[in-house]
Specification:
This protein has 4 helices and no strands. The protein is mainly alpha-helical and about 100 residues long. Bound molecules: zinc ion.
């Protein structure tokens, strides 16, 4: 993990975004910003990133990635389903165009 969150680096309350790998490595986690934006994000995208951060904190990134890959595996072609619209970009392309 060598990539910092492109969204939260602008919102980070204590400026540690370039010193830590995950927001939960910060003393301020979870901050109001996480809680506020995770609710909005979940409402819009059906996905709660604060829950994901807590799962990564608890079980590690490798476990989380394996879980997500399994959960989002397309039953039809085996590719990864989009977490936002629940469509497979490999075999459900027609649906995306509609
Ligand atoms: Zn597919």
């Amino acid at each position: 993990m060598n990539k910092n969150c492109s969204f939260f680096k602008q919102k980070c309350e204590n400026g540690k975004i370039y010193e830590i790998d995950y927001c939960f490595d910060c003393d301020l986690f979870p901050s109001k910003i996480h809680e506020q934006y995770s609710k909005k994000y979940e409402k819009r995208n059906g996905y709660n990133f604060l829950d994901s951060l807590n799962l990564i904190k608890k079980n590690g990134a490798d476990w989380f990635i394996a879980e997500v890959e399994e959960k989002l595996k397309c039953e039809n072609c085996g590719d990864t389903i989009c977490i936002h619209n629940k469509l497979c970009y490999s075999c459900n392309r027609d649906k995306l165009i509609e």
